[in-house]
Amino acid sequence: MDLKVSIEENKYMEKFFKNFPQYEEQVKENIYHKLPEIITYRPHKIKPAYHLKRNGHTILEYKVSVHNKDFRAAYTQVGNEVNLFFISETTIKRHFVAVLEATTLVDK
């Protein structure tokens, strides 16, 4: 399956890249190149963000590792369309889900 990955432009993504400009290029490289590999060849690395949904679709999450820094990212996948819309330096899953749930990005 040929995946089409996009990074949503929203205030949360802007804030993330503003706070971590030194990692922006590597994080985007990970999203555009490693995420499709993980989805295709290592789907066990992809987990649902518990009960959270966005536009009626299950929110999925995975760990983004760049150099010696880890982040956690949230995205939805509909068919071959992957839309990544949130990244946090909070890497513990339950804390990440709580931070994500407090945003305007999830269905209430």
Record keyword descriptors for this entry:
single chain; YaeB-like fold; globular; five-stranded mixed sheet; alpha+beta; 33% helix; 5 strands; 108 residues
Architecture blueprint of SSEs:
Layout: E1 4-7, H1 11-19, H2 24-41, E2 47-54, E3 57-66, E4 69-78, E5 81-88, H3 93-101
Parallel strand pairs: 1-5
Antiparallel strand pairs: 2-3, 3-4, 4-5
Written overview of the protein:
It contains three helices and five strands. By secondary structure, the chain is of the alpha+beta class. Strands 1-5-4-3-2 form a five-stranded mixed beta sheet. The N and C termini lie far apart (31 Å).
Number of strands: 5
Helix content: 25-40%
* First-to-last CA distance: 31 Å
For the record, the count of structural domains works out to: 1
Mean pLDDT, as a whole number?
Answer: 97
